[in-house]
Amino acid sequence: MPLGEWLHGVFAFIPESYALNIRTYAICILIGIVVAGVMTHRRLTNRGAEPGIMLDIIIWAIPLGIVGARIFHVLTHPNDYFGEGINPLSVFYVWEGGIAIFGALIGGAIGAWIGCWRTGIRFWTFADAVAPGLLLAQAFGRFGNWFNHELFGLPVSSDFPLGLEIESSNIAYPPGLPEGTLFQPTFLYEVVWNSIGVVVILLAERAFRLQWGKTLAVYLIWYGLGRTVFESIRIDPSEYFIGLRVNVWAALIAIALGIAIIYVQSKRHPGTEPSPYVTGREWVPIATGVDSEETYSDTGNVAETTSEELTSTSATSGAASSEKVTKP
């Protein structure tokens, strides 16, 4: 079956009005994932991890991140999915929109922990490696919000240079405002903020030699600070808790968590990480002796092989020495 027909069948059950938005938004997210993956791969291998091991971790992190993103959105927008006259199956209608980055971070962290546990990579090492890539991925994802005309902010005057025009039929369009009203492009602000944040994280990491999760902590603080501002001027429907949008509270928690990680990890691990792997599960490149190729082996096997080689060498040398002595 041609690829075009297969894709048509996949999207056939999705209403036509959502199909284009899904594909455009999905492309933006996929580009972000690829860019973040390449960046994380390079950062992990530079720390001494086995090439390609990042794939063994994100195969858990990405699916659980998507699930977490949906669950967080549903829980923070309960009136959209539960109540009289609402189809409970709409919880699964992802094509109608509704994923949350904070849920993605929680689900993704759980998936990354599972992947790290299975591969032997230190969780904090992976967290530090992925941190700047996360901001890049989020920046690309926000372009999807532009295509969908969603997550915009308060109205602005007609001479505002970055004013965004939204169609009055948009579900988040404030009632009573005239057609042609311009709004704050909060997603664009976040694109710029996240892009600058990548540079800040990399510079801070180099200047302070951040390890043991402290690079991730800088990410949480930076993103949390920006999100508290952008979230405060958004006007799309949201749940409120003690006078603040739920996502503002989530951003404040992210900031607090980042500060806590820096404090706790600085006390627990004042030195540098000895290896990207947990003790006893290290992998090191060893020469095979054939065409100067390299392979990777568990250190325990390396030690065993080395011991056998030394024993064999010693025995050979001893035999040779004995032969020289006994000859007349």
From TrEMBL:
Positions bound to a 1,2-diacyl-sn-glycero-3-phospho-(1'-sn-glycerol): R142
Subcellular location: Cell membrane
GO molecular function terms attached to this record: phosphatidylglycerol-prolipoprotein diacylglyceryl transferase activity
Alphabetically ordered keywords of this record: Cell membrane, Glycosyltransferase, Lipoprotein, Membrane, Transferase, Transmembrane, Transmembrane helix
GO cellular-component term (any): plasma membrane
Pathway(s) this gene product operates in, as recorded in its UniProt entry: Protein modification; lipoprotein biosynthesis (diacylglyceryl transfer)
BP-aspect Gene Ontology terms: lipoprotein biosynthetic process
Transmembrane recorded as keyword: yes
Record EC number: 2.5.1.145
Residues spanning the membrane: 20-40, 52-72, 92-116, 123-141, 187-204, 216-235, 241-264
Region (Disordered): 290-328
Low complexity biased stretches: 303-328
Domain of life: Bacteria
Bilayer topology: Multi-pass membrane protein
Keyword Zinc in record: no
Protein purpose: Catalyzes the transfer of the diacylglyceryl group from phosphatidylglycerol to the sulfhydryl group of the N-terminal cysteine of a prolipoprotein, the first step in the formation of mature lipoproteins.
PANTHER family with a match to the protein in the record: PHOSPHATIDYLGLYCEROL--PROLIPOPROTEIN DIACYLGLYCERYL TRANSFERASE, PROLIPOPROTEIN DIACYLGLYCERYL TRANSFERASE
Family of this protein: Belongs to the Lgt family.
Name the record gives this protein: Phosphatidylglycerol--prolipoprotein diacylglyceryl transferase
